[in-house]
Amino acid sequence: MMKFRLRTRLFSLLALLLVAPHESRAQLAQSARIAVGTRVRVRMRDGAEAAWQFEHASADTLTLRRRTQESDELLSVPWSETLRIDTIVVAPRSARRILVGTAVGGLVGFAVPYVGATRGRCHAELSCPGVAFAILMPEIVGTGALIGGIAGYANRPWHWSTAWHAPAAPSTDH
User: Fold this and answer.
1) How far, in Å, CA of 155 to CA of 161, rounded?
2) Quick one: pLDDT at residue 26?
């Protein structure tokens, strides 16, 4: 019983550490509200669009980096040629996804020893694989719940969102 309580406390402590908020240490560029090193998708006025890494923004230009197999490629683009900059927005950690992952992992962890204990055939009194599954059931269920909780913690949906859009061109109608 004492061993079970210790495992429960350790599992609870690990779960609390996983959901603790983390502070971002990203350095913000001065002209654009995009963190240095962020993946961006840049659409140019001529219709060209490509994924880059944000490097620097000044009053006149936007500097981007792309790492290829051969080298690093730097691109400086005037703001006047840039139509839109999109960044990746990642959903925050969700206690719901963690709990669902823990529940699913625990159920799968329960199903494995249950099937092993009920489907295994005993060959002799001391040679019964079902007993081993029954003995190891708490560890298997706990491991499944832990893995499911970690998967729920790591699973964060993302999407592209516009971080900067060029101002509309002035009207030429008189």
Assistant:
1) 19
2) 37
Q: Each residue of 9-55: pLDDT tens digit?
A: 655 545 544 554 444 333 344 445 788 888 999 999 998 898 999 98
Which range among 83-92, 102-111, 117-126, 127-136 has the greatest average pLDDT? 102-111
Indicate which CATH number applies to the domain containing 52.
2.30.30
Give residue 11's Cα distance to chain centre: 22
Query: 150 with 96, same domain?
Result: yes
Domain that holds residue 104: 92-154
DSSP 80: G
Name beta bridge partners: 86.
41, 162
CA pair distance 90, 93, nearest whole angstrom: 9
CA 123 → CA 75, 112, 118, 130, distances in Å?
71, 21, 14, 11
Phi, psi dihedrals of residue 91, rounded to the nearest 5°: -65, 150
Q: Say yes or no: 97 and 86 in one domain.
A: no
What pLDDT score does 11 carry?
58
Domain count, the chain: 2
Name the one residue in this structure whose structure tokens are 């002035």.
170
